[in-house]
Automatic annotation (TrEMBL):
Record carries keyword Phosphoprotein: yes
InterPro entries: Sig_transdc_His_kin_SpoOB, Spo0B_C_sf, SPOB_a, SpoOB_C
Pfam family, one: SPOB_ab
Record carries keyword Phosphoprotein: yes
UniProt name for this protein: Sporulation initiation phosphotransferase B C-terminal domain-containing protein
Top-rank lineage group of the source organism: Bacteria
Every Sporulation initiation phosphotransferase B C-terminal domain range: 59-173
SMART domains assigned to the protein according to its UniProt record, in alphabetical order: SPOB_ab
Keywords tagged on the record: Kinase, Phosphoprotein, Transferase
GO molecular function ontology, one term from the record: phosphorelay sensor kinase activity
Length: 179
């Protein structure tokens, strides 16, 4: 079960993240690494633009889950990007959050504490559908468990599993929502 964040928890995490970013900038300024400072600022701007795009999808639970995922100690680090224009996914919010959260929980069970495990989610907004591309690199203890789960959950309300490809240390999964 996912942690329910109180406002004070969110503000604490946000303040901590921003202090880290400011300290990184300050440290690079002290070392007179001006180019690196500009790179860090560009990275921050990119992250904020992606958060804006994510929240503009109007899937509040899903956005909250994605934006706070890395705030807890996890075996998998998560990053995301939103491609395309904004759309209203509010009617798909619960299904999208449930499917994605359950899938990442499954992947956490397959990950190894001794490896770097990373999941990247690309959300492509098209005129008649939204595609979510899950790209995983890291430990996969038992591919069969993942395949069985995907087959059992290939149709979850509005979520349609389009394809998946699993190898020893990497996996791709494509799901879509059709309007």
């Amino acid at each position: 079960m996912e942690k329910q964040w109180r406002i004070v928890d969110v503000l604490r995490h946000s303040r901590h993240d921003w202090l880290n970013k400011i300290q990184l900038i300050k440290g690079n300024l002290t070392l007179n690494k001006i180019e690196r400072v500009y790179e860090i600022i560009d990275e921050i701007i990119g992250e904020m633009q992606q958060e804006t795009k994510l929240t503009n999808l109007k899937a509040v639970q899903f956005a909250e889950w994605m934006m706070t995922y890395n705030w807890q100690t996890r075996l998998i680090s998560l990053e995301y990007e939103v491609l395309g224009d904004e759309c209203d996914l509010s009617s798909y919010d619960e299904d999208l959050t449930t499917w994605s959260s359950n899938f990442l929980n499954l992947m956490e069970q397959q990950a190894d504490t001794h490896d770097e495990n990373h999941m990247s989610i690309s959300i492509e907004v098209l005129s008649e559908e939204v595609k979510l591309f899950f790209d995983y690199s890291g430990t996969i203890k038992d591919k069969d468990i993942i395949v069985q789960w995907l087959r059992r959950h290939q149709q979850h309300a509005a979520i349609h599993l389009e394809s998946f490809d699993i190898h020893n240390n990497e996996m791709t999964v494509l799901i879509k929502i059709v309007f």
